[in-house]
Amino acid sequence: MSFLLKWTSPTRHRGLSPPGTNGERPAKRALPSGPERGLAILPNELIPTILTRVDSRSLFRVAQVSRRFNELSTRSWLQRHGMKPSQLSSGQAVIHSDFPEEAFAALRCALFLRKNPLSSLSCVMTPSVVTANAILKLASLISWFNPRLATTELDFGADMITQSITTKPLARTLANLFCVLSSDSPTTVFVLKDGLFTCRPDALRRWSPATGHYEGGWSESNYSNVHMHDGSRQKVPTIRSLQRLSIKYPLHSAAPSPFNKWKLVVVDVASLTDLQLSVKLLPHEWAAILDALTLPALVCVGLWAEAIGTATSTRFFNRHPQIRTIKYMSPAADALPPGCAPLRLPALETLNTLVPYLVHILAVPDDAASCAEDDASAADALIAPHRFSRLVQIELRPHARLHEALLLASAHAPLRALTLWSLSPTYLTPTWPVFPSVRLLTLNESPLHVLLAAGLPVLLAHAFPSLRRIELNYAWANTDVGVKQMEREQRAFVGAVREKNLGVGVFMFDGREWSG
């Protein structure tokens, strides 16, 4: 026990009586027993000064004496670790301490007698103090809260995956932490670089941070198999770095079951710039997850899941106006429901998509006609060039509605580069619209002799007056002609284009610039 507690012991100050007792000996239960008894005779103004000098074990003993001592002791204990008691009253706790294990104990002791439950916890640790025991105590603290925390932010200060490769106890405690995070929910959604997955409470019991596998194994890999919440086994990205965890519970508090019990865990949200949506989920599950997800650093999205509706993806994209690249490979392009705002991405630069989705987002929304009658400026804001002011590159696959998509793309003034895949002669018709600003045209998987036979140079002269660069990528290994025949076709194509006086200065064939 600290010498300060011994100094306040009644045996050291005989003859002194607590205020209001008139020298009479107090009742047996009026004062605590042991060295803590001496604190009871001191005024509240002096006790905090003494408590700042005692150790954590003594603070814990003092906090158990009475409600009055609990408040005084825990206040001193919290301030020692950078926490403010006023934050606890508002349901928030911020831990930023060089001794996280003691800070966890102080927080638990301070909340024991408080009626207001904690709803938010933020813990920031320095790499030098992150040990296996500290993570174990952290997992115990998170599982102790009842009701469960609505939001939790854990910052370890360094990449835990790198450290767990050389430290086996740390790897085991990290796996235990993830089990704790998902144990109190029937389904946990993990969002990380390149993708996301759902899992049952016991799905990560065999997760190995050192190897990256969720179901065991010893070889490192960027992808692994995991049992999803519906029992299916799917290939999902592994957790390759771990510095920060952002936890939200539930997905939607007002949503119907089961989403009011699902939990969302985002790994390294500050550095999550690339997200690929490809796992197989039901449409209402995708809607619940994406509506609850906000990633401030997101700039690139790949959407492959066919179950993601257009309204769901539009709401998600509109919440992330900083997105610069989208690869939309889902065939879903249904009309937006009433009340859903049209897609607006002012930072979008590159769009790689299927024809139906391009027609969907570039077409003038139905609201524009009604807005034009009331407010012309509001109607102009719904036009594609205003909603995608930086969209300069579009990439398309062949489709029956290709001509409609090309017509809408040609009206998009910022467009500078166009990429088309697998063009057949049926698509190369004189009815193509004019692209006045396109300077780069890329054609992939289109044999050169087919393009020549279909009169591509004539089409280029008509549709691309500002063209300066042509790239053709048709993979020589997939053609039936030899190298010399290919060179003759390239020479004929370059000569035919130059005859049209298009001003094309650069010709690229399979990544190599023409120098003939």
TrEMBL record:
Transmembrane segments: none annotated. Residues 36-80 form the F-box domain. Residues 7-35 are annotated as: Disordered. This is F-box domain-containing protein. PROSITE patterns: FBOX.
